[in-house]
Amino acid sequence: MSEPVTEVKVLKLRRADLRRCAQLEQVLFPGDDPWSHAAFSSELDQGRYYIGAYLGERLIGYAGLAVNGRPPHAEAEVHTIGVDPDHQGRGAGKALLRALLRRADERRATTFLEVRTDNETAIAMYSDHGFEIVGLRPRYYQPSGADAHTMRREAVEAS
User: Fold this and answer.
1) Which residues form the N-acetyltransferase domain (predicted)?
2) Are strands 49-55 and 75-83 parallel, antiparallel or unpaired?
3) pLDDT given at position 42
């Protein structure tokens, strides 16, 4: 088992790192439709919540969330989470997910996401953070045609 990444910092995603995000997409999602620099830029332009996992100044992961509506009917959608393969399994993905969930919980939003049905590692991580499978989207990922589970997590109120 890999040692945990203790020096990773989760910060607001810097526009200067969008090219790195697009490069990581090519590595992480080669059989599907990886996001481009323009797609990431558009997400930021729309005011979406995007964060990065940084080791020093180097971006090793990224994540994004959209929140729609207001409590008690607010909903959040995890748009993406990606971690450089050289740094997977060391806690960066969990740190990114937890930061997204804090944001959703602040807005008392139920959170949804899609995950490939064959991505057992991600499904386990999401389940460990309170998500449950609520649906199936056949051929969701293109062009591979891979299926996706839709997962949901109710907002957690601060105690």
Assistant:
1) 8-156
2) unpaired
3) 96
Measuring CA to CA, how many Å separate 82 from each of 9, 52, 53, 63, 65? 15, 9, 10, 6, 13
Report field, pTM of the whole predicted structure over 0.90: yes
Q: How far is residue 60's CA from residue 53's CA, in Å, rounded to a whole number?
A: 6
Q: Which two tokens stand for residue 61?
A: 């992961």
- Note the CATH number of domain 8-153: 3.40.630.30
Q: What averages of pLDDT result for each successive group of 10 residues across the chain (159 residues)?
A: 67 97 94 92 96 96 96 93 95 97 96 96 96 97 94 85
Residue ranges covered by each domain of the chain: 8-153
Looking at 63-132, list the stretches that DSSP marks H as alpha helix, in order from N- to C-terminal side.
92-106, 120-128
Structure tokens at 147: 């299926």
DSSP E strands, the chain: 8-12, 49-55, 58-68, 75-83, 110-116, 132-137, 148-153
For residue 86, the 8-state DSSP code is G
